[in-house]
Amino acid sequence: MSMPIxxxxxxxxxxxxxxxxxxxxxxxxxxxxxxLALIVCxxxxxxxxxxxxxxxGPSVSGVSRFLSxxxxxxxxxxxxxxARFVEQMREAVEQEHARQRRAAAKRRGRPxxxxxxxxLIGDDSTQHKPGGKKMEGMGYHYSTTHERxxxxxxxxxxxxxxxxxxxxxxxxxxxxxxxxEREGVPFQSKISLMEQIIRSFEPVVGTLTHVLMDAWYGEKxxxxxARERGxxxxxxxxxxxSLRVADPQAPSGWRWQRLSQYAASLSPEQYQKVLWxxxxxxxxxxxxxxxxxxxxxxRCQVVIARPTxxxxxxxxxxxxxxxxxxxxxxxxxxxATRWTIEVFFGEIKDLxxxxxxxxxxxxxxxxxxxxxxxxxxxxxxxxxHLRSLFHCHVTLGQARRWVQQRHWQHLLGWLHDQFSRGxxxxxxxxxxxx
Length: 434
Known about the structure:
Elements: E1 3-4, H1 10-17, H2 25-40, H3 47-51, E2 54-55, H4 60-68, H5 74-103, E3 117-128, E4 139-143, E5 148-162, E6 165-168, E7 172-174, H6 177-183, H7 190-200, E8 208-213, H8 220-228, E9 232-236, E10 242-246, E11 254-258, H9 259-265, E12 272-276, E13 283-293, E14 299-306, E15 317-321, H10 328-337, H11 339-350, H12 362-390, H13 396-420, H14 425-431
Parallel strand pairs: 1-2, 3-8, 8-9
Antiparallel strand pairs: 3-5, 4-5, 5-6, 5-7, 9-15, 10-11, 12-13, 13-14, 14-15
Helix pairs in contact: 2-12, 4-12, 5-12, 7-8, 12-13
């Protein structure tokens, strides 16, 4: 059943009002309609599927023009939502500093500096579009879901995680060089796009930023960008990278050795058993840490983890962190936190249909992703509200179902009001097509 826009929940209405300055009055109506449709939709989030959710809503062609042609700026919307997030988190950061000061042990001398760490997580995700040959920006990208190269779009993304709250940064579309030549746009590699994210990012005041990325982004260029911004950085590294090891027989007293060879030379006693945080239950892994230098990187702590002491070499994973003062548990927490962006990709696809679009232009695609992120941010705020209200863990899916239930309650109340006024069933059926 379609949802009349009059049944819009007050919390979503107030959230949309925060972005009114980014849209004209007609555009604002489209914004509200699309966000409501994204949240209550139970089918594919194509434009047709979304517009079937709203009774007497705009036409599919109107929404298409809103996404592809209307004069509004996705960048301005992203700046607005980030400013809103910063404002919401400022007080929480101050409270966390105060909590750390109260918890600190009393000692002589200057008090230990309190630190609130925010994580800037970067990664990319392939949006599989098998029937999208005529869409702009289409290329062939490796998909971890399909474990092969598939046709689709590549989304390069930054996600800010601070004190349990998440804020996506503006989406970026990666085009392969051949695609850029065909469409007449400048080519930018994934590394360049990620460097832009690091250099343009402005953290919440009073926080330390720690950049997290997987082995694909373990490049000195990104480490340099993080260091120049005063950020810490932890990335995965591949087994064929080399680290510096002590060698008394070498003229310099050290030599380069491949990570895979170094790991093979370690004895079981050189590993420590630790609990690795996961979405479900923590699992036991064996970890070795050494402070050294990775070739073509800077001095760092190298983390080598294996699920069992006798596992095959292919199961061993490697990371490098610029946080030279971190202990083992802190390093493990840094590395495990990177998984948050994988959860984010799963949520925007499963709950909000970020990969279900049927849009021809790159402009429309980026704007669609921008509106998906707005819906995500609304649900993230509702999730935080429910956690503080019930003092328990709440998933984003549960927050979405809670918001949907409130809208269906408004719909039932509206139907009751219509029947009380004597509106005939046939008239309501015309207003609310199935």
